[in-house]
Amino acid sequence: MLNIESHVSLKPYNTFRIDAKARYWVEITCEEDIHTLLQLTDFVDTPKLILGGGSNVLLCRDFDGLVINVNIQGIEVIRADDDHTYITAGAGVNWHKLVMFCVEHGYAGMENLSLIPGTVGAAPMQNIGAYGVELEQVFDSLTAIHIQTGEKRTFSYADCAFGYRESIFKRELRDQYIITNVTFRLDKQPIFHTRYGAIRETLAEMGVSDDNLSIKAISEAVIHIRRSKLPDPAEIGNAGSFFKNPEVPKPQFERLKAKYPVLPGYPIGDDVVKIPAGWLIEQAGWKGYRTGDTGVHTKQALVLVNYDNATGNEIMTLARQIQQSVLETFGILISPEVNIV
Ligand code: FAD
Ligand code: EPU
Description:
Blueprint: E1 5-9, E2 21-28, H1 31-38, E3 48-51, E4 57-58, E5 63-70, E6 75-80, E7 84-90, H2 95-105, E8 129-130, E9 133-134, E10 139-146, E11 152-156, H3 157-160, E12 177-187, H4 197-205, H5 215-229, E13 237-241, E14 247-249, H6 250-259, E15 266-268, E16 272-274, H7 277-283, E17 290-291, E18 294-296, E19 303-306, H8 312-330, E20 339-340
Helix pairs in contact: 4-5
Bound molecules: flavin-adenine dinucleotide and uridine-diphosphate-2(N-acetylglucosaminyl) butyric acid.
């Protein structure tokens, strides 16, 4: 039975804690709910916004439509072969809960993605990533339902067109499908991803060496690093990195490096270098900046924050100022990672 509510404040449902209102709100807990919803003639032409944990959205207006909160639960081991275990999780499962399930059972591959907020269903949307691993490395397939036709479709790895903080769902198919569940392929024999300096240092502090390295230790190290750097949305409103790290052609990177010798950069293939946007924003003087209730986090310049009652538009104004200032200083246009609504 669907319970469609009216005039709902979205403040508890987005980690930026923006007090925008939804004209209508509905929670769906199974696929059948979606089909029931799509048959309601009153809502056929109503604009729809799909929402998981609200940890990667910035609400700049009241939403004059129907917010569909995806809360499909369930974690199931569906099959195994000599090398892999396949696990299907409902779109509403908390991402970190799934990671902990895998770590506890020794299913390897997701440990570097510990403590990322949000839901399983949103994870393929931007191919979530952290500490040298991206979702696509453990992705098998997903199931989604078309929001107009109700057609159910399975998307393979190739169908999703994953990139850095990108997928087909963030581009060509944006707002067209409700992802209902995702199947992951986990390794029986772990491959440890410890090339990030912060992970190696934290493991050393924990007394973990190559001899006693485990996916549990990596998960704990990642959790420790994240807690020390990133603001907890329960305390300060934020959506993680506001911008993506820009990827620039190598000659442009080299010209900048000649001017700013300490400029960090990570090669992506032979021709492109990824530059940490946090560095650019900090050098442009924004780290720790605050105006009213909006600001730039004191420990991580890539994270914009709502100290209390900022509006989405106030955060957007700050984001545009930062974008302009980085462009003027370095000639690089940084683009938002967060989904602007
Ligand atoms: P939401 O914010 O609810 O939605 C995000 C987008 O996905 C929206 O466009 C929405 O319409 C769409 N969507 C949501 N659910 C579905 C569904 N079932 N079907 C179809 N579309 C859907 N991200 C990283 O990649 N790496 C990080 O390290 C990281 N760290 C973070 C740290 C903090 C403190 C915070 C607040 C955020 C961080 N993020 C990070 C961003 C965020 O956690 C991820 O993008 C996460 O996947 C968002 O999940 P969500 O359920 O909250 O999505
Ligand atoms: N840096 C600064 N000043 C800052 C912040 C960063 O100079 O205030 C520079 C430093 O040189 C640092 C480098 O940026 O070494 C990288 O910083 P960090 O390791 O904190 O990572 P990031 O590039 O800022 C990315 C992801 C995060 C992810 C971490 C760890 C993006 C847009 N962000 O951040 O993802 O958790 O790496 O892998 O790719 C998110 O997407 O929301 C998110 C938090």
